[in-house]
C-alpha cells in the first residue's frame, strides 16, 4: 500500500440543540476529516477534538499542524504505511493522541478496505451485532427542561442516561430525575474534572442515588486524588480524561483510582491502543464502555465496532445520529430497541455522502 494523497476537510455541522458541559457549551460540531488515498483503497477518519483545548489539550488548528508537519512525514517514511506500524512510527512525537488516532484510523480504514475486512472483524467483535446505546444529557438552564429531555430520550429507547454535572448542578437534578423516572433507571454522571478533593464529602452525597458511576470528577491525570476520592465514596469512579494509554489504564487500576474506564479511541491514540485498554481492563475484571465526542457517522461507525467487544459491558455514549444532528454527513445511525448496529462493510463500514459532505465542508487542505 502506497499513500498517494491525504486530504484534510474542515467541517461544521449544527447540533440539534446546544450541548453544555462543565467546560463549555457548543451548538455546532466543528471537526476535520482525514481522507487517505492509497494505490489500493481510500480511508476516512474524523479528528475528535474541538476548536478550543477545553476538554483536552489538543485542538483542531494545532492537530492539523501536528499531522501535517510531524505525524504524516513519519508515516510516509515507512516502507509500508500499515496501521500496525504507524503507532511506533509516530511514537517519537509526544502526546497528541487525538491527532495520532485520526491518522492511524484513516490508514487502518484504507488497509482494511483493501483486504475487504470490516473493522469489527479485525478488532475481534462481530459485524451486525447490536450495541446498547446510552445518551449523555448536557447541563440545562432548569430542572423541567432536563426532565423533558430525559423523558424524550427514554421514549426513544435509550437504555442508560448520563447527566453532565458541575458544582451547583448535581444533587438537585439527580433527585429530580430519580423522583420522576424511578430507582431502576440506569443512571450515571460526568463532571469533566469540575470538582476537587475538598468536595469529597459533597460527592459522597451522590451515593444515595445508586449511580452506575461518576466520570472524571477531579483534575485530569491526578490519579492519586481519584484514588483518595474512591476510598471515600461508594459510587464507582470512572476515568475518562485521565486515561491516555493502556499503561495509564494499568496504573489507574493498580492504584484503585477507578473501578470503571471510559474508552475513547481518539483519546488513547486509536483503535489498536483502545483494544489494548479493553484487554488490560478485562484481565483485571474492570468494566469498560465506549465514550463519545459528538462524532459524525465517520467517527461513530468505528466506535460501534469497538463497543461490540465483550469487555464493553456497560452501555456507551454511542447514541443515534438524531440525538446530535438533523442531518449528518453519512447515512444516519438509527436506534433499534435501544441499540445501534455495528456496520458490516469493509473498514469502518460507512462512507460520507458526497453532496452532504460538500455542503458541510468549510475548507479542504491537501497535506
Ligand atoms: O466527557 O464524555 C465526555 C462530549 C464531548 C466531549 C467530552 C464528552 C462528551 C460527552 C458526549 O459526554 C458523548 C457523546 O454523546 O458523543
Ligand atoms: Mg467524559
TrEMBL record:
Q: Which Pfam families match?
A: MR_MLE_C (PF13378), MR_MLE_N (PF02746)
The record's section on Gene3D superfamilies has: Enolase-like C-terminal domain, Enolase-like, N-terminal domain
Q: Which domain of life is it from?
A: Bacteria
Tell me which residues make up the Mandelate racemase/muconate lactonizing enzyme C-terminal domain.
Answer: 143-236
Reported cofactor(s): a divalent metal cation
Top EC class for this record: lyase
Its recorded name reads o-succinylbenzoate synthase
Task: Look up and give the organism this protein is from.
Answer: Streptomyces antnestii
